[in-house]
Amino acid sequence: MAGISGLALKRPSVIPGFGLAFGFALTYLGLIVLIPLGAMVVKAASLGLAGFWDIVTNPRTVAALRLSFVTSLIAAGINAVFGVVIAWVLVRYRFPAKRLLDAFVDLPFALPTAVAGIALTAIYAPNGWIGSWLAPLGIKVAYTPLGILIALVFIGLPFVVRTVQPVLEEFDREIEEAAATLGARRDQTIFRVVLPALIPAILTGFALALARAVGEYGSVIFIAGNIPYVSEIAPLLIVIRLEEFGYAEATAIGTAMLLISFGLLVFVHVVQAWRRRRFGND
Amino acid sequence: MTNLSMAPVPAPAGRGTEVTTETRPVRALLIGIAVAFLALFLLLPLGAVFVEAFRVGASAYFDAISEPDALAAIRLTLIVAAIAVPTNLVFGLAAAWAIAKFEFRGKSLLNALIDLPFSVSPVIAGLIYVLLFGAQGYLGPYLQSHDIQIVFALPGIVLATIFVTVPFVARELVPLMQEQGTQDEEAALSLGASGWQTFFRVTLPNVRWALLYGVVLCNARAMGEFGAVSVVSGHIRGKTNTMPLHVEILYNEYNFAAAFAVASLLALLALFTLIVKATLEWRYAGQIAASRRH
User: Fold this and answer.
1) From B280, which residue of chain A is nearest by alpha-carbon distance?
2) Closest alpha carbon to B91 in B161, B168, B156, B150
3) Which residues, including other chains, have CB under 8 Å from residue A20's CB and lie 6 or more apart?
4) Which residues of B133-153 are buried (b: 16+ CB within 10 A; e: fewer)?
5) How far apart (Å, rounded) are the C-alpha atoms in residues A165 and A201?
6) How far is CA A52 from CA A44, A56, A242, A251, in A?
7) How far is B59 from chain A (nearest CA, A)?
8) Minimal CA separation from B174 to chain A, in Å
9) Residue A33 — pLDDT band, cuts 50, 70, 90?
10) pLDDT by residue for chain B (294 residues), tens digit each?
11) How many CB atoms lie within 10 A of CB A136?
């Protein structure tokens, strides 16, 4: 750390209040976040590796974790594709109600998940707005993994848009002009010049959407049907185990999910560091 | 694909010329895809909430949101937000003051830890407090012998809500205050202001719109949180049910119109949040964090 010499915690400053602010923030994070999370990990450790492994590899747990991951991966992928299109349209084009649409992208952050859950179920249930059109075609959305996917696409929608949008706004158009001057077709410019520069932002948004989707509960449980081995997501299984007083199982599944989230978080930081090295500071 | 010899296409937003934008059909197609996707996934569910809420008439709607259990749920939701939001506001100010105004070891770690609750499942946020304070939990026997109830009562609901909303205020303030630097504070101090005077008269006014921005988002999540609160609430009707939990109970009783009626209040809160957020981004773009300026 530049400017901090020897054993000192911080660089000397004329501004007061470091001790109070830092101490309060650290104590607060410790009491609210770190100690409770640590307690869960300690409890999981007390199961022993074999005990932990037994629970995590229980067929119903494996089915729930796999379902959560596969649906979240697909949903994050869908959001990556459409998120780039939406960000592109919002940054580059002018059309009516654009500002309104831009503000609306954040709806999944603002709308409580339970409200989203019952609304999506009302739309995609066999007698619902869209569900009743799909039912004659033999497509069932609500109460199947497809319904889970719809809910996860909803919940992850803003992440890719909001990570790509600022990068695209900063993107230097002269580079595109240069590409065109050198004879590149527009599609070549987009796919070989613009999109590669957006990849770190897309990956970051993808990972954030994925992390959110894996842990999502409220918007999913109404539309999922919650049939064990078929449409039961991992967070729901934690709730079910808790209601059965299966604290060990709930703890082990929770810890497994926490480890996975940490992995994603580390991934995001690695991507950000790579982006700073490759494309300079933001 | 792009025919450069065709008549000049009117330049769209920004500095685009015909070589740095797409042809008109491609633009129309992309706009169509984006609008259709947003309409299908965002507008349709939002519309569904209000249509379903009024499906059996306005009087049923007003009955559903004024019956005693609904009022109790609304009251509890307001109480929880009234505790959780100011608590996280104070935390956000303290964390931002430390991170933005000083250089110290472990700063980037502290910065990363603030965002941690966003990557933890809300269900886990509830679970950890049950493991700590529940009857079978680490502190359960002690709490029971002293007749203190945390889980399945207000304190547990507040704690779980605080957990999931920890980052909101801090993540708005930290980048903005880092950007603003320390000159203003140093000037105030050199002119003889005390530390607290500097904070309340210089720093706080400098960040007031970002603070409001963070508080509005924090409040929306605090009032709407479902997973974390669901685990610690115990679902005692009229007592430990917040509005989202009340929606769930009504829905599971097949009382759809009432469920959507209460849900519509939360949807209005979401719309209010989006309006305030968009207004702040538009009106005070220069005074909220760089990452929020569109």
Assistant:
1) A103
2) B168
3) B94
4) bbeebeebeebeeeeeebbbb
5) 9
6) 7, 6, 16, 9
7) 21
8) 13
9) very high
10) 444 444 444 444 444 566 778 888 899 999 999 999 999 999 999 999 999 999 999 999 999 999 999 999 999 999 999 999 999 999 999 999 999 999 999 898 998 899 889 889 999 999 999 999 998 888 989 998 999 999 999 999 999 999 999 999 999 999 999 999 999 999 999 999 999 999 999 999 999 999 999 999 999 999 999 999 999 998 888 889 999 999 999 999 999 999 999 999 999 999 999 999 999 988 888 788 755 544
11) 7
Question: Does the beta-carbon distance from B104 to A11 stay under 8 Å?
Answer: yes
- What is the pTM (predicted TM-score) of this model? 0.90
Cβ pair A160, A209 in contact under 8 A? yes
Mutate to test the interface with B, among A26, A102, A115 (most CBs of B within 10 A): A115
Amino acid (one-letter) located at B176: L
Counting beta carbons within 10 angstroms of the beta carbon of residue A266, is it exposed (0 to 12), middle (13 to 18) or buried (19 or more)?
A: exposed
Domain limits of chain A?
A: 60-234
Phi-psi region of A138 (alpha: psi -120 to 50; beta: other; left: phi over 0): left
Residues A60-234: name the CATH superfamily: MetI-like (1.10.3720.10)
Closest Cα in chain B, distance from residue A218 (Å): 6
- Report chain B residues whose CB lies below 8 A from the CB of A122: 48, 52, 256, 260
Interface subset of A 26-85, CB within 8 angstroms of B: 26, 28-29, 32-37, 39-40, 43, 82, 85
Chain B environment of A41 (Cβ under 8 Å): none
Question: Tokens 């009432």 sit at which residue?
Answer: B258
CB A49 within 8 A of CB A222: no
What is residue B11's DSSP assignment? P
Among chain B residues, CA nearest to A112 = B224
- Helix, strand, or coil (residue B196): helix
Could you tell me if A3 lies within 8 Å of chain B, comparing CB atoms? Answer: yes
- What is the average pLDDT value for chain A, to the nearest integer? 90
Could you tell me if A8 and A16 are in contact, meaning their C-beta atoms sit under 8 angstroms apart? no
Residues 6+ apart with CB under 8 A from A136: none
User: By C-alpha distance, which of A275, A215, A166, A168 is closest to B164?
Assistant: A215
C-alpha distances (whole Å) from A84 to each of A117, A201, B257 are 25, 10, 37
Show the DSSP H helices in A93-144 as ranges.
Answer: 98-104, 107-110, 113-124, 131-134
Match 């304070």 to its residue by tokens.
B133
